[in-house]
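Sequence in, structure out.
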Amino acid sequence: MVKVGVHISIAGSLDLAVDRAKAAGCDVFQMFSRSPRGWGFAPLSDEIRAAFTGKIRSSGIIPVDHMPYLPNLASPKSDIHEKSIGALSAELDRCGRLEIPYLVTHLGHHLGDGIAGGRSRVIGAINTALEKSENNVILLLENTAGEKNSVGSSFGHIRGIMDGLEKINRVGVCLDTCHAFAAGYELRTETGIEETLAQFDDQIGMRNLRIIHLNDSKGDRGSALDRHEHIGMGFIGEDGFRRILHHPVLSALPLICETPVDDRCDDVGNIEKVRELAK
């Protein structure tokens, strides 16, 4: 059976995310360990930490953390860049205290001064944050959809960043299917999936692929549109996801849906669709 889950709210208390994940039928879940829309956050109390880790241990569900929205590791603006490094360092520490094995981060936007400069700043930010981090949390670099000024839309871009990292054993990759498809990688056919994964293996290495963000796409292949759709309802489609979910490498990894919740489908529905297509 595939290990599948969704992004879960922490409203009320961090440990309630575990309860919600269980209720939704998750094998794995992703969350923000704090509000994703601001720079400030309250420190973790021993009580909150113990409640969260206790429920995780008893549930057997795999937790994954995601960086908040505001940090931009590629930013040429010195104040934003420094605050982003601080946020990444703090989030790695929070993951360690919460016994969360993975932290997913977007690589950011270079704001028009070029991919080389953006990539250099991402490398510097990650090296600084990991140097300050005294735990074994794995930082996962997430591919982007190819939107304007983004860093990390190609496997080659990600390889260029990884080549500059000092603690490479603390770094892996989270592959987002919507982003990869929107950036031009084919995921609808068996041949396309094999060719995409061959490129990934050649440029990044399959051993570095730790998690899949399993999302359909509102935009067609190569559209550079970062808009997620329900599983099977977008341009990748049911047949595409059936092939993805029967691939021996991809189906063995933790799968996290970051799909919409609307009158067509919800989180439970997307989890059920994944399991149906994986049969």
